[in-house]
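User: I'm preparing a small set of examples for a lab meeting where we compare how different chains pack in three dimensions. I only have the primary sequence for this one, and I'd like the structure in token form so I can line it up with the others. Please keep the answer compact; I'll paste it straight into my notes.
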Amino acid sequence: MIGISVEEVLDRLTADKDLVSRMPFLGQMNQLLFARLRNTGQRWEANDLFDIMFLSCAAGYADVVVGERTTIGYLRQARAPRARASLASSLPEAVDAVNRILA
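Assistant: Understood. Below is the structure token output for the 103-residue chain.
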């Protein structure tokens, strides 16, 4: 036991005022990992942690991010910081997003 309640742990993981949570990569990764761990009905696959890490980083700094539907869905649900990138779960969506940027 670390001496704090479950509610305190949840508050710390979801606090909007936390400076780390405002950082594009770490804030996204924190929210995705938290959402993914809370979803006990979904089975972990070998690449899930890599998707969370690298797509969170890309969403904070890239213009367009393409990923699997599940991880992109978690990125779309993240509260703050919002993903800087346009999020796509298919190549046609990504092409549309790039065309909007170039237009």
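A couple of notes for your slides: The longest strand covers residues 64-66. The helical segments are 6-14, 24-38, 48-61, 69-77, 91-102.

User: Perfect, thanks.
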